[in-house]
Amino acid sequence: MMASPLLPLLVFLLLLQSSSSVQAQQRINLGSSLTPEGPSSSWLSPSGDFAFGFRQIDGNSSFFLLAVWFDKIGDKTVAWYAKTSNDSEAGPVQVASGSRLQLSGNGVLSLQDPTGAQVWSPKVAGAAYARMLDTGNFVLAAADGSTMWGTFDSPADTILPTQVLTPGMTLRSRIIPTDYSGGRFLVNITTDGILYCLVALPSSNHDGCSWYMKGETKRLVFDATGTVYADFDNGTQANVTYGMIDSLASSYYRATLDSDGVFRQYSYLKISSEWSSASGWTVLDFQPRDICKIMVSVGSGVCGFNSYCRFDGTISQTTCSCPPHYSFLDSNRKYKGCKPDFQTHSCDMDEESAMNEFDLISTDYADWPLADYEQYSPISESECRRLCLIDCFCAITVFHQNSSTCWKKKLPLSNGKMNNDVQRNLLLKVPKNTSSSKPSVTASSKWKNDKRSWILGSSLFLGISILINLLLIFALFLNPVHFTNTTKKYPSVEPSSNLGLPIKVFTYEELEMATDGFQMVLGSGASGIVYMGQLQDEHQTCVAVKKIDKLERETEKEFTIEVQAIGQTNHKNLVRLLGFCTEGKERLLVYEFMANGSLDRFLFGGIRLQWNLRAQLALGVARGLLYLHEECSTQIIHCDIKPQNILLDENFSAKISDFGLAKMLRTKQSHTNTGIRGTRGYVAPEWFKSAGITAKVDVYSFGVILLELICCRRNVESDVAEEDKKILTYWATDSYRCGRVDLMVEGDDEAAMDLKNVERFVEVALWCLQEDPAIRPTMRKVTQMLDGAAAIPTPPDQSSFVGSFLQHLT
What we know:
The chain is of the alpha+beta class. The protein contains 18 helices and 44 strands.
């Protein structure tokens, strides 16, 4: 077939269009913008090798990173992503659909969320244009072409060829490869050398730092030949990694501080103008040579507590494993460590029972160098074994044959490692009967050493039982009618299928066994004590068991009805009820276990949660309250919203607890008059008046908590030197009216960079704290204002609620 005479012309036009497109990408003019979805979501480098713009966090997520990535490979490997601040502890900036990146007419690059609030900016003004360079550096340039700011200036976890790090810059690993939150390892470039640190989560405290290289450091360089080296002030250099680069034209390169703490240098071969799906990143070099040998004096080590680390240097792979009869707390986040799959040695068990219940098994080449608490020398191996078996604290014993030395170690075990260098005989305590995960502590094991007390107790019990029976018969004979009328009856427990509950009915014996006799107290409140337990199901589910001891008579009668209402609630921001128990006078509720405890320990302790996380917690609590007030079948007013009743799961999601014991209203009722409930400092003013109690009491309490989340302090702090700061609601109102919201987040760099949103949250809190319940917004409106879906009018200026707040505290 003859070629068309128009074909050369069409080819020329296509080439011309392509050339114009590439040329347009070389210079990004003022007024340009990007959005997460649509054709304008990124800016390419001239070759198209790198892209800068919005990168979806994962295939199903509705959130995006502002990032630089390798654009010609299948997985679009991220080389840089924006963080909430330049601080090493800052988290990634995550935005939703509807956000916008704008290079304004005055040369300012700004990322705005769907509400128009600025969430990130390099804080450089006056740029003439921007460029995405083929080196992987996105820059803001002055009119003369000089770089005013670039992504190379604020690295995340990766550096690229030609990139230079100077003192004050850091590399922070991700928490896991698919989660861009700040991880557990940090490389810090200082003027005195390069520091390698293990970071404790979620506190971000450094469990341990060691000098990787020590000296007066000038910079850390990834040069074009493939060497990553430290350049010192005295003119000397020291290599960190050395991966020879043949040609930047044939391969791409990066060096990344990976989530397992290993700094790896990679290459990726270009097959053609496009990346081949069969290709992949190849490790050229890495440091440290064995990450498992990194040891810190405190903390969990590389792989978490009760686990051990193995490193294969031939393929540069780190593996975390659990010892026999242990399993990971979270198989997707193995750094959280391992837990025993059996009931550990109870200190109530006598020596003979312990010898019968447990055994010691050899674990070759494994070692936990810390956690020693007792040492014996000289000693035989058999005696070393016996001393561990009868000791309820001993989880592992180590015997060294040459020195006849015995070490005992207790849980949790830290800094575990496994390699051929370990030549000691390590013995792990496990149950003998592997088919049963819960060795029982029998009555004989508790009382065998004191038979006289047991006989005396039995005789006394028998005598009392006979006396009580005689008294009951005598009372029934004298007045059977009166006896029948005054005896309190407890509702019988029907099978869960008859109640229509999606929850389980537990026996008291089951819960007693799960909690090991109600030994470990998680907390206590007005309604009872909460114990930690572990169910004997196939998943060994951890639970929190609330033993209720202060129910009103009417509530006691309606306990099963209330439990039914609780069981029908289902929301991600409510603690889930798993089951209950009603036997005799016993009333127990079984909830899912919250791994990170209550919010108050993070707000008022030495740990400060990141601002972005605190904002998400506020939204979570608001959504949970909205569900209780408006979206569940029976309206529930909590009446005791406070940080102690907001629990955090392993992912730090907020979940409201204790709502099952609140005063519940039928949907046709609008208010109730009842006795004062709640906790001092969080109680709404109407509790102290004759006004009816509505869902707005929870709105008021939420307002107090919202201010506490903003400021990371209690609502009342009497030991504060400044008088006007003692009461948080008063100080917040004063700061807002004076236009000094920044004072409320002083010392919190992440929040200080997000003052627009901080002010928005303060305004919502002040609306919630209005003395008149009718003026307070509903939780639906509160959620919309926090989300940015609704405008926030200026809160009314009322000074009266401060006086009322003072009255509530007295």
